[in-house]
Design brief:
The structure is a single chain. By secondary structure, the protein is an alpha+beta fold. It is built from 9 helices and 14 strands. Strand 8 (309-310) and strand 9 form a beta hairpin. Helix 1 (2-16) runs antiparallel to helix 2 (23-55). The longest helix has 33 residues, at 23-55. The protein is elongated and about 125 Å long. 19% of the residues are buried.
């Protein structure tokens, strides 16, 4: 097309460069220029299509994949052909493929489609790990933690010849070690790694990351592994370690008075950065609670997600907390960064590829592991408090 366009432009130029071009020559030159303009549009369209094709992701190589939402080359080509047909009326030969299914299954001449999104089950665990004090260490050696409490010491009147007493702040030492933690193994066949449409590397990293945070949240909350009586040696439960200072009026409900008592029981020194921690089902229960004037406890925030604060303090979900029932701790309030310390050996979560263990079955294993420890850092004034349901 470029050669044809050049030839037409030369013809138009030749017609116009004569000494006195006639009206017929001028008309002929205008027609040639119009034809050259059409060719220019077609050339630009072809060049744009070539650039788009070059920018498309290549076919996955062994051990690689493509993003879960990326279109295939067949889809991109089909869209381009449809665009060409709409814009220029250009038509192409039929190039559909046949399926490879068995004849008894039918549809032997109908092309297969593929939904290019990996649909993944979801389960929330809450954001309590992001609210506590996190400390990364270079090794897992026991770490000394010092707690100091001088909150009861004040000024005294100086009366001569009185001798002032010596009063030292209360210092409490503690040692925080680490527990070795690991995920279950994910096995993937070599064929899947080579041929999968999806980016399995990113998918596996994402899965292990969720297992990591879900597991840490469970250990911090309960101090043990889900479905197992084993107790973590060096990760203290934030529920059993917090201060039980308020008991609800009813076993299966939380009233306005319970919330007020919780708010008043926390030392004001911790109130500025305090948050509420609860299950999502507890929040659903609180949506129907009103104060003594009939006003709802929760008020939707116009600039944030609805029902995100309670008495002006943020609400953070912890899905491993107990529901509202007799004897349970279903609600916590306080400054979690002051009240709980989680240490983890750098870099945190590590993923190991087991190349040889399952290779006799042409499979590769993946394992996630970390080392972490956690403890309450309550020096005596209770930065985190519990609401215990009436028995």
């Amino acid at each position: 097309m470029k050669q044809k366009r050049s030839y037409i432009l030369r013809q138009a130029q030749h017609a116009l460069l004569s000494d006195k071009p006639s009206e017929a020559k001028i008309t002929e030159a205008k027609a040639l220029m119009a034809e050259a303009d059409v060719l220019d549009e077609q050339i630009l369209a072809e060049e744009e299509r070539a650039l788009n094709y070059a920018a498309m992701p290549p076919r996955p190589q062994p051990g690689e994949g493509v993003a879960s939402g990326a279109p295939s080359s067949y889809q991109s080509e089909t869209r381009q052909k449809f665009s060409d047909y709409i814009r220029f009326g250009r038509q192409y030969e039929e190039t559909r493929d046949l399926t490879t299914g068995a004849g008894n299954a039918g549809a032997a001449l109908i092309p297969q489609e593929f939904y290019p999104v990996l649909t993944e089950a979801k389960r929330a665990w809450g954001g309590i790990v992001n609210e506590i004090n996190l400390k990364g260490t270079d090794s897992g050696a026991p770490m000394k933690v010092a707690l100091a409490n001088d909150t009861y010491n004040m000024l005294n009147l100086d009366t001569e010849p009185a001798i002032m007493n010596e009063v030292e702040p209360t210092l409490t030492p503690a040692m925080l070690a680490c527990d070795p933690l690991k995920t279950d193994i994910i096995k993937v066949t070599v064929a899947e790694l080579q041929d999968s449409f999806f980016d399995l590397d990113s998918f596996i990293r994402d899965i292990f990351g969720k297992r990591y945070y879900r597991g840490l949240t469970n250990l911090i909350t309960t101090g043990s592994w889900a479905g197992s009586p084993a107790v973590a040696q060096n990760i203290q439960s934030i529920i059993s370690g917090a201060f039980d200072c308020v008991t609800s009026a009813a076993p299966n409900a939380i009233s306005w008075g319970d919330i007020v008592n919780m708010y008043g029981a926390l030392d004001p020194a911790y109130a500025e950065n305090a948050i509420w921690a609860m299950k999502s089902t507890t929040r659903a229960l609180l949506l129907g609670v009103t104060d003594s004037l009939g006003r709802p406890l929760y008020v939707p925030a116009p600039t944030a997600q609805a029902f995100d604060t309670l008495l002006g303090r943020r609400v953070v979900f912890n899905q491993f907390m107990a529901p509202v029932a007799a004897g349970n701790v279903a609600l916590q309030f306080g400054d979690f960064k002051q009240g709980y310390l989680l240490r983890e050996v750098k870099p945190g979560l590590a993923i190991v590829r087991l190349n040889e263990r399952y290779m006799d079955n042409l499979e590769v294993g993946f394992l996630g592991y970390c080392r972490a420890g956690g403890m309450m850092t309550d020096a005596g004034t209770h930065p985190i408090i519990n609401l215990t349901q009436h028995s």
